[in-house]
């Protein structure tokens, strides 16, 4: 009877104590969460209950399984103890990682709700994400090392490795230059504030948003939902455009290649009306000017502003579309074309009146005036 009751007491008691302790911890965390609404820490800590219960149950079993008098347990006592020890180490590492992630997420959530600067929030998010990854990597490495050291054979291997650590370190440093470079570049990006999660960047001619930053690589999500993955060392060794640097507000340009007869003053009025009807325009500034000229066309530049990169793209597209449509419908002569026949002159042009092109009449003297003989108006 004792051989039957003892295993039930050991295993059943460990499970019962684990469930009761898990329930008590959950009750305490719920009460703390209801009293402290300003922080999500206590609510997030409830996610740590599963690893806590595994640690507690494994520790109880590890401490009490020697009391089981079964032949199977007695014959495999060392192996069972080894397995329980490994599970305990792994569960402890799981608990530490989960608690660290909870603290980091809680700190970031409180900062994000209290700060009104989106750029600073993105910077803190990048830093806490990389800190969390570093903590996870360190804890996992220590846990694996501790698990290996529980095997007697590994202790001898560890001593030999320490004896030759200098040579191995040199070899590893030479062989892993790229990996180590990316690792240090990840820290430089996190704390140097070069690029942050959520920034709008242009790399290798591709426009997108930084979606993920790790210790070794960075992912950019393009406008067409593609993901570009590149080493973080790229951003520390090559120039790139960061449209979110120094604030989210942006100015954008729209260029038009038009005929020399384009009505610039009327285009300014039309641009003002277009921006007034565009919800993405932030109302800060706008302008329209002739920035270049060639023998066949002029270059007209419209400058508009918006609160972020997404809105500036929307404003530029709206201005380009509506201005071209307006020119096509009301001032078709302003659009550039390849001249294969005499072009129509703009309405109200003085030269049109002189030549009689609007009526088809020849001037009274029977001669079409040339620009050199055309009468001048005004003084001088």
Shape: elongated
Number of strands: 8
Structural class: alpha+beta
**Radius of gyration from CA coordinates:** 37 Å
Please tell me the overall pLDDT.
Answer: 75
Helix content: 55-70%
Low-pLDDT windows of residues: 357-380
The description of the largest β-sheet is: 5 strands, antiparallel
Total count of helical runs of at least 4 residues: 13
Strand order of the largest sheet: 4-3-2-1-5
Cα-to-Cα separation, first versus last residue: 128 Å
Task: Write the H/E string, N to C.
Answer: HHHHHHHHHEEEEHEEHEEHH
Question: How would you portray this structure in words?
Answer:
Helices cover 56% and strands 15% of the residues. The protein is elongated, with a radius of gyration of 37 Å. 18% of the residues are buried. By secondary structure, the protein is an alpha+beta fold. A 5-stranded antiparallel beta sheet has the order 4-3-2-1-5. Strands 6-8-7 form a 3-stranded antiparallel beta sheet, with helices on one face. Helix 6 crosses helix 9 (177-192) and helix 11 crosses helix 12 (309-330). A hairpin with a 3-residue loop joins strand 2 and strand 3 (217-222).
């Amino acid at each position: 009877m004792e051989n039957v009751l003892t295993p039930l007491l050991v295993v059943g008691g460990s499970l019962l104590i684990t469930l009761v302790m898990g329930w008590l911890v959950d009750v305490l965390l719920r009460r703390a969460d209801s009293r402290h609404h300003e922080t999500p820490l206590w609510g997030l800590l409830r996610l740590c209950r599963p690893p806590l219960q595994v640690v507690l149950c494994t520790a109880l079993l590890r401490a009490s399984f020697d009391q089981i008098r079964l032949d199977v347990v007695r014959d495999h006592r060392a192996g069972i103890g080894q397995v329980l020890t490994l599970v305990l180490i792994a569960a402890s590492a799981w608990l530490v990682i989960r608690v660290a992630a909870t603290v980091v997420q809680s700190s970031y959530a409180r900062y994000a709700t209290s700060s009104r600067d989106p750029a600073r929030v993105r910077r803190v998010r990048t830093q806490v994400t990389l800190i969390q990854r570093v903590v996870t990597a360190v804890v996992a490495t220590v846990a694996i090392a501790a698990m290996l050291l529980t095997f007697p054979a590994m202790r001898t291997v560890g001593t030999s490795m320490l004896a030759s650590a200098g040579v191995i370190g040199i070899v590893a440093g030479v062989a892993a230059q790229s990996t180590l470079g990316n690792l240090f570049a990840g820290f430089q990006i996190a704390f140097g504030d070069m690029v942050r999660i959520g920034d709008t960047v242009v790399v290798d001619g591709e426009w997108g948003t930084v979606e993920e930053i790790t210790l070794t690589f960075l992912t950019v999500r393009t406008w067409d939902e593609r993901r570009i993955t590149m080493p973080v060392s790229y951003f520390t060794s090559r120039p790139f455009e960061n449209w979110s640097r120094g604030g989210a507000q942006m100015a954008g340009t729209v260029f038009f290649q038009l005929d020399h007869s384009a009505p610039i003053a009327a285009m300014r009025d039309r641009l003002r009306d277009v921006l007034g009807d565009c919800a993405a325009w932030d109302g800060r500034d706008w302008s329209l000017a002739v920035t270049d000229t060639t023998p066949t066309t002029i270059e007209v530049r419209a400058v508009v502003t918006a609160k972020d990169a997404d809105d500036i793209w929307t404003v530029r597209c709206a201005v380009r579309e509506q201005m071209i449509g307006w020119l096509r419908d009301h001032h078709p002569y302003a659009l550039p074309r390849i001249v294969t026949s005499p072009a129509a002159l703009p309405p109200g042009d003085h030269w049109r009146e002189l030549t009689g092109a609007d009526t088809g009449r020849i001037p009274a003297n029977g001669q079409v005036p040339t620009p050199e003989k055309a009468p001048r108006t005004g003084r001088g």
